[in-house]
Specification:
- InterPro entries: Ig-like_fold, PKD/Chitinase_dom, PKD_dom, PKD_dom_sf.
- It holds the Pfam family PKD_4.
- The chain is built from four helices and 66 strands.
- The chain has 808 residues and is mostly beta strands.
- The strands form eleven sheets. Strands 30, 31, 32, 33, 34, 35, 36, 37, 38, 39, 40 and 41 form a twelve-stranded mixed β-sheet that branches. Strands 55, 56, 57, 58, 59, 60, 61, 62, 63, 64, 65 and 66 form a twelve-stranded mixed β-sheet that branches.
- It starts with a helix and ends in a 14-residue tail after the last helix.
- The C terminus is likely disordered.
């Protein structure tokens, strides 16, 4: 082939290629370029958490946070890289220049923006300047997309000898259109598009839940031979390969979106709330068991896999037994399937439960030969008719009467039986009666009754002489008439709560319920006691929809009225009935005087907090006097009790009097708590400051630096944000304003403040309370009011700046 002819054809093909590039670039965004390599600061590898930024014309167009010391991104298919996305105005004057920044300081290196390029670029700051700072871009592959009518063509200019297609081939051939980085094999081996199958986007992720950092592998399941992929992971990041691996660094629930397309069609799949990521500091119950199946007796080792910092464990193994250690061992002796539950709690009262249904399978074994003579069970029933009174009133029509024998299931067609007003059953050969059969003769029979106004409770049998019985013996073939009564207080003649012994110890005998009513106050920081113990601003204030739960350690006392949902603000429990609309405590084999604790969750709270029980008096003027407090009350079956619950710090410190004390009388107020900016927890090194207009509040711990991710101040180490001023300069309850300065911003942003135990909304200030250690949460954003530090200083009189104020 003549050299001139080759050159001419090559020039013609190149002209055609660039013609298509120009057609594509009109109105279409430029492909991003990506970078990876090493990062050094003063010659040493940059630490994990270092922030890299890429800017075009001083506008940030990409960011990357180091997850490995001294290295960012990588050349692999699944490696994340520093992606630079140019906007239309960035390229108005031709090729744009990219500058790189390391923790806010400009790196020595810079390079030109080249769409579609993936480049290895080592970045550094400090030390001597490298020999080359304006790094040229290697362009082995440049991706361009052109569109003519409904078709698109992708071209590639390679820095090697290639066979150049003719103009007719470029227009007629259908080539893959892709925005993948050029180092990927898909770019070098384009495949023809198949138009035989309809395009439907679909994908899966594995895993879809876990704790931070959570790495999820996404797999494209789309039909129709897509050639382009656009992923949106829901956390502000994207990718453009078929099967990406993405790491979620923040807790939350994320919606994932995949759009696929080729030359002929496109499709989108959106999965709402698909990925769930939890914080490792949040309590989350989980466990494993080994082995999970076998023949009896089977010894199983349970292992706690919970996250957070649990201090208590409560296991139920499904066979009526349990344990309270972290990693128990248990032996199953009876064939069957067993559901295992684990409930954990930490020192703050936060709890979490994990239940695994039918986790343990115990295979059947040969039936052992009986070693005792079976007891003959009569088949002839004993029948009962009679009257029923509930708390002095006849039972309503439609109520129920049920006979029980502990250790036996004797329910049937006529047990339980419905009641007419005040009576159950009717004498006569063919009349319906309460029937008991299928138990040994002389077994002790109990009676339980309920109607629309009262829950199921155990009844006494009233004798003709006025005495009471708890049970009657089973007499097969007899018809017995009984008078059943339910009393608010048990009679003196018999024990209040007999527990019938059964061969297996406690066989699920329910306790007599205890009803509880009262009120709930949730502290909001305005409460205080005067010198006579009178509590001010202490009225009940829990919201409608709030919840109260009674707990007894080691026992399940949950039920229809526990937890109790507030239907009135402040107060719970009403009606003349002993049990109606009241918090009720009842459980299996519940011992007398077991300690009941109370847990409160106001409407909108994510979890319960333990409440105090206040011993108080309320006079005719509704003045509350507090005498003492405790966390628990004893369980007393059959009784009703009124309690006053208090959630949050108790008001024990009276306000400081306002006469003229010495200037040093004000003790500092210390603050600590959680803090976030733009919806994300503050990072280590961010700053928090407290101010009061016209007053100098600056001191060594105001402002204070964040030392723990998402939290300012340390109440244990006493390194807290302090408001420390002379007495004359500020009054009690004067408003304090808070400011947040993230490391990458030059302004201080005004923060909103909220007491986490208060039900009140976020506020602009918080009242000054000398001598207190106050837990308040802060939040701000780049849309909040902002000021330079010097502007804040100008609003403060007699402010003395420290010598190292430049770090603020």
């Amino acid at each position: 082939m003549i050299t001139g002819t080759v050159a001419a054809r090559t020039a013609l093909a190149t002209l055609l290629l660039f013609s298509f590039v120009l057609i594509c670039s009109a109105g279409a965004p430029a492909l991003p370029c990506e970078f990876y390599g090493t990062v050094t600061i003063d010659g040493s590898p940059a630490p994990v958490g270092t922030i890299l930024s890429a800017k075009i014309n001083d506008a940030e167009r990409g960011q990357y946070v180091l997850e490995e010391a001294g290295k960012y991104g990588g050349p692999g298919t699944f490696d994340q890289r520093l992606k630079v996305v140019a906007e239309e105005n960035d390229l108005g004057t031709g090729s744009a220049q990219i500058t790189f920044w390391i923790n806010g300081q400009k790196a020595w290196q810079e390079t030109a923006f080249q769409p579609g390029v993936s480049m290895n670029l080592d970045l550094s700051i400090g030390g001597d300047a490298p020999a080359v700072t304006n790094v040229p871009v290697d362009t082995p592959v440049i991706i361009a997309e052109t569109k003519t009518g409904e078709e698109s063509v992708e071209t590639a200019i390679l820095e090697q000898e290639v066979e150049v297609p003719t103009e007719e081939q470029l227009i007629s051939d259908k080539l893959i259109v892709s925005d993948m980085p050029p180092q990927l094999p898909e770019m070098e081996n384009p495949l023809p598009i198949s138009s035989g199958e309809a395009m439907v986007a679909d994908f899966i992720g594995d895993p879809v839940s876990g704790t931070v950092p959570l790495s999820v592998t996404f797999t494209d399941l789309s039909t129709g031979s897509p050639t382009m992929w656009a992923w949106d992971f829901g956390d502000g990041t994207t990718d453009m390969i078929a099967n990406p691996v993405h790491q979620y660094m923040m807790p939350g629930t994320y919606t994932v979106r995949l759009s696929v397309s080729n030359q002929e069609s496109s499709s989108t799949q959106i999965k709402e709330g698909y990925i769930s990521v939890t914080d490792t500091s949040i309590l989350h119950a989980d466990f494993t068991a080994s082995p999970t199946s076998g023949k009896p007796p089977l010894s199983v080792q349970f292992t706690d896999k919970s996250t957070g910092s649990p201090t208590m464990w409560a296991w139920t193994f499904g066979d009526g037994t349990g344990d309270m250690v972290a990693n128990p061992g248990h032996t199953y002796a009876t064939p069957g399937k067993y559901t295992v539950n684990l409930t954990i709690a930490d020192a703050t009262g936060q709890s979490s439960t994990s239940s695994k249904k039918d986790l343990i399978l115990i295979e059947g074994a040969e039936t052992p030969v009986p070693t005792i003579t079976p007891i003959a069970v009569p088949s002839v029933p004993q029948t009962f008719v009679g009257t029923v009174e509930l708390y002095g009133k006849p039972i309503q029509s439609g109520g129920t009467v049920e006979a029980r024998v502990p250790g036996h299931d004797i329910k049937g067609q006529y047990n339980p039986i419905k009641t007419a007003k005040g009576v159950f059953g009717k004498s006569g050969t063919f009349s319906p009666k309460l029937q008991v059969q299928g138990v040994p003769a002389d077994s002790e029979i109990e009676f339980w009754v309920a109607d629309e106004m009262n829950r199921l409770v155990r009844a006494y049998i009233l004798q003709d002489d006025g005495s009471y019985l708890w049970t009657v013996p089973y007499k097969p073939g007899q018809e017995t008439q009984v008078r059943l009564v339910v009393l608010k207080n048990p009679p003196n003649e018999i024990p209040p709560i007999p527990v019938t012994p059964v061969p297996t110890g406690c066989a699920g005998v329910p306790s007599i319920p205890m009803s509880i009513q009262g009120d709930v106050h949730i502290t909001d920081g305005t409460e205080y006691l005067d010198s006579e113990g009178v509590c001010h601003n202490c009225q009940p204030n829990i919201k409608v929809g709030g919840m109260i739960e009674a707990r007894i350690e080691g026992y399940d006392v949950s039920g229809p009225e526990n937890p109790f949902t507030m239907v009135n603000a402040g107060y719970f429990g009403s009606g003349n009935s002993s049990w109606a609309d009241k918090l009720t405590v009842q459980g299996n084999c519940l011992p007398e005087n077991a300690n009941i604790s109370f847990w409160v969750k106001d409407d909108g709270w994510p979890r319960y907090t333990q409440a105090w029980l206040i011993n108080e008096d309320i006079d005719a003027n509704e003045t509350i006097t507090v005498h003492g407090e405790t966390h628990e009350v004893p369980y007393e079956g059959g009784k009703s009790r009124t309690v006053h619950l208090w959630a949050g710090p108790l008001p024990t410190v009276p306000p400081t009097p306002t006469p003229t004390p010495e200037p040093s009388a004000w003790e500092p107020q210390y603050f600590y708590g959680k803090a976030e900016f733009n919806g994300y927890p503050l990072r280590v090194g961010d700053r928090v400051m407290a101010t009061r207009e016209g007053i100098d509040l600056s001191n060594p711990t105001n402002p204070v630096s964040v030392l723990t991710f998402g939290q300012y101040g340390d109440p244990v180490g006493k390194e807290m944000l302090a408001v420390d001023v002379p007495y004359e300069s500020i009054e009690q309850r004067d408003p304090i304003t808070f400011w947040i300065k993230p490391q990458d911003f030059e302004y201080w942003y005004k923060a909103e403040v909220k007491n986490p135990l208060s039900s009140s909304d976020w506020g602009d200030t918080y009242p000054f309370t000398p001598g207190s250690i106050t837990n308040v949460d802060l939040r701000s954003s780049d849309r909040a009011d902002f000021m330079y530090f010097y502007d804040i200083v100008d609003t403060i009189s007699n402010c003395i700046l420290p010598e190292d104020y430049s770090g603020w």
